[in-house]
Amino acid sequence: MKNIYLIISREYLERVRKKSFIIVTLLMPLFMIAMMVAPSLVMLYNTSDQKQVVVVDRSGLIADNLYETPEVTFIRETGMSKSEACNIYNAESGIFGVLYIGETIEARDSVQLITNSSSSMMLEENIAAQIESIVEREKLKAYNIDNLEEILANIETNISLATYLNDGSGEEEMMESTSTGVNYILGIVLGMMLYMIIILYGQMVLTSVVEEKSSRVIDVMVTSCTPFQLMMGKILGIAAVALTQIGIWALLVLSASKFLVPVVFSADVVAANDMMLGAALGTITDTGYLASLFVYLTLFILGGFLLYASLYAAAGSAVDSIQDSQQFNSIIMIPIILAIIIMMSVFNDPNSPIAFWSSMIPFTSPIVMIARIPLGIATWEIVLSVVILYASFVATTFIASKIFRVGIFMHGKRNSWRDLWLWIREK
Amino acid sequence: MDTILKIENVSKSYTGHKALDDVSLEIPRGAVYGLLGPNGAGKTTLIRIITRITMADAGRVLLDGKPLTAEDVFHIGYMPEERGLYKKMRVGEQAIFFARLKGLDSREAERRLRAWFKRLNIAEWWDRKVEDLSKGMAQKVQFIATVVHEPKLLIFDEPFSGFDPINANLLKEEILGLRDRGATVIFSTHNMASVEEICDHITLINKSRNILSGSVEEIRRTAGGNNFEVLYRASEEEFLAALGNLATRTTESRGTVGGYTQTRIHIPNDEDVRGVIAALNDRCNLRSLNEVIPSMNDIFIRTVNGTL
Q1: What's the complex ipTM?
Q2: Touching check for A16 and chain B: CB below 8 Å?
Q3: Superfamily (CATH H level) for B3-221
Q4: Are A90 and A203 found together in one domain?
Q5: Any residues with CB less than 8 A from the CB of B186 and at least 6 apart, and which?
Q6: How distant is the Cα of A210 from the closest Cα of chain B, in angstroms?
Q7: I need a labelling partner for B209 at 20 to 30 A (CA). Which of A230, A292, A342, A412 fits?
Q8: pTM score > 0.80 for this model?
């Protein structure tokens, strides 16, 4: 036991003291925020030039009703045929393209956009929507309804759906307000975080074993402690590093939620804005809820990391260099990537059979389960998932230690899966 | 003889070649025991079998008469040939880590280590990182980490490689000091000079086999084979006549030293040595007659070439 403790503290201190650890720990939350904000920033600033489209309208209905948008303006050409327009407004003219509308609008191939360069989805949708609404209005007019414009304005409706989770109390105020949108993002963030940490720290275990093997420190180590002590010391030492990192993040996020966010976004700002933002701020400032998420996160990260770390340690023991580890590494990655794919589908229906089973099967469970938790999952499911996860960690560690025990002594030989299988069965 | 470690009929094959072939040897307690042999003879394999890093295909290793266990190995001090230290770690911290792994508490470890660092002139490197050390200095650190817990059995694989003569000497003194304090030391080398100076016993391994074992003194005497170097002043006929049946000349004249002819003779029977001296003295103006004791280097080369 004393040896394991010594190895744990060596592995831990070596990593935690590094400047890179401190930098990564502090920069990662900023990076995560940037990742979330970046898409909307891109959308905001990615306004392409307004395009000019020449309209040749043979139906006589559309051209006058098309209106200018930030994406497109229209030049009406009357009395010009399609081929004439295409000849005049070619690529050199600086015009984006020609919109041709046939006599019977709804006929097949009757509305055409002939462009001088590649088209864009947004533009096509914009034009199609405009034409559709023009045609719809024309059809409505045929019914001869009085005050049509007024009625149309009057019936326009916008609904925002507020969701609550039924906790059986029957009182709406007591029920936890749930916003799928916010929890969806939260789920993705948590799942991605788990994915990153498992891979990052799992690889760290692998690298650490391979380095120890290639620098021959291993010879001194194995004449001082058992291979099992060495393996567990490494895994637990690196696990402690991961927990330290999460601990610091939890501290940063929770204190921001408690002190920073309420000040920056005061209540009237929230009131003035829409429900979605309100719900998001509600979640972000609910420090207790965030703290409970961090507890789950820690549980699943630890379990998931330990499960995979033992496999990474076994893989590292079986090779002489990082390059050689690829064949094992890629196999270990498969369930992790599978978990990410399943996680993405989980949000459509958090209680689908695939979501349920993949959060029970230990190799995918940490990532899928943590992503489902913000969506409101029965406690028994979480408990069962955690129990299975930790039980399988014990099993994989047992198997991995058998591989490790033989693998670390092997030098200069490329080991195959068959070799590993033989080592597991060796007494 | 009080044997601390006994190796019985150990064999080991790797794919395609035999690293050790039925090797047996006994290591006396309190000795400095040298494992000699050319590169690739199987020395390191034997050491790795003793430290249980490699498993033997056949044969066994006994410590104090009992089969060696993993637990026993944890108390051995072992310095591998390819030195292994954690590069990113500070020197002092690392030495303490290894010392504690070997069972010392941290305070005792630091006290002993500080003393050792001072003794080997590397005290000022305590707080530096291992990657900043030169090869020789890293080796000193490794040496200290190997001996600091004062094990009763020490194994060094090529301890002198990478040292300049001054530091090699320093290390020799320390190894002898450890033996004097009761440790048994096994080391492998192909540096014969160091063997003559510090080994009590040797085993010569060549092509995976133990081809010569015993105390250094005995081996040299046996290998000497009653050869003598003589200086005399006389004609060749007279000299050969004086030797008679008692001795034979082994080399032609090797030139003259101060007017005396120098040559080597072989006297098969010890009791004839006095007779030969008397005859040479009477008839050939004998100036000197010295027994030729071969150096370990000669023995090594001659044994390996199969001419001994």
Answers
A1: 0.79
A2: no
A3: P-loop containing nucleotide triphosphate hydrolases (3.40.50.300)
A4: no
A5: B5, B27, B33, B35, B47, B50, B153, B154, B155, B156
A6: 13
A7: A412
A8: no
